Structure formats: structure tokens, C-alpha cells
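Hi there, hope your week has been kind to you so far. Do you reckon you could talk me through the fold, stretch by stretch? I've dropped the whole record in just underneath, so have a look:
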Amino acid sequence: MNQNRDLALAGIMTAVTVILLFAAMIVPNLKLVLYGLSSLPMAALLLETNRRTGIMFYIATAALALILLPDKMAALPYVTVLGLYGLIKAVAEKFPNRIIEWTIKEIYFNATLFLYGLLIYKVFMPNITFPIPIWAVVLCAEALFVAYDYIYSICILYYEKLFLQNIKRFTHFTKKR
């Protein structure tokens, strides 16, 4: 692919992602939705370019989020979990075996969940107690992760089927002129 095109697309996707993260920080009612949306430009970029561009996009987006967002904690979900998930999903779905695919995804999610739990319990809130057992929290988190992966996959299909086909049709039409 054209490196200039890839770089321009990565720059646009970086701007979109940082704007979504900023919106997640200032609109509390839509925080989870906006965090989820902030992870989608990675999928679009991976469909359009390659993994190397995706890695550079993640590094740039994570760095800009940590630099530009006034509340650094607002960047944490993206930097630690959501930003990399598109890459993890792309690598995992290259395997033809669904068990291997889900094992990779679950290892990634559970490792980040464990690190978040450790960070919360040991650093930020060592005296916190949950009104429900920790296994119930983990079970709910797993259910949310599976739902997130399913919705992420639907968004990728929507992008491939509707958006990419229409753009290719339009660019094909303009090239013939």
C-alpha cells in the first residue's frame, strides 16, 4: 500500500480516537459507549493497512491521550485495554481454530483484568470492600467482554460490507473519469 495514504489515514484515525477519549472524559453518561467507540478506529485502520501501521497508531494514540487529556485516568482504559484489543483480535482471528482464537482473547482480557484489580487493590484503594463476591465481579466482566467482542465484530462487518464497498465503488468511479 501507499505509505503516504497509510500515514494520513493513521493520523485521521488518531485524531478521531483522541476526540472520542476526550468526549468520554467530559460526558459521563456515555463514558462506556465512547470508550468502546474509541477502540474501533484501530479495526478500520487494520482493515485498510497492516499491523505495523496499527502498532504505530496505538503508540501515537496512547501517547497523545496521555499528553492531551487533562485527566490522565480517563486515558487509562484505552491505553491498557481497548487500544490494543483491535490488534489482539486481528492476531487471534488469524487462527482457524475458534478455541485458540478465544484462548488468546481471554488470556489478554484476564491478564488486563488481573492487573487492573491488582492496581486498584494495592495502589489506589487498598481498603475497598465489594458488597458482592469478587468471582461475581469477574463473571460480570467476562460477560461484558464477550458482548464487547461480539459488538466489535458486528462493527467490523458493517465497516467492511457497507463503508469499504461504497468507498471502493466511489473511488473506482472517479478513476474512470
Notes: Residues 134-176 form the longest helix (43 residues). The CA atoms of residues 168 and 174 lie 10 Å apart.
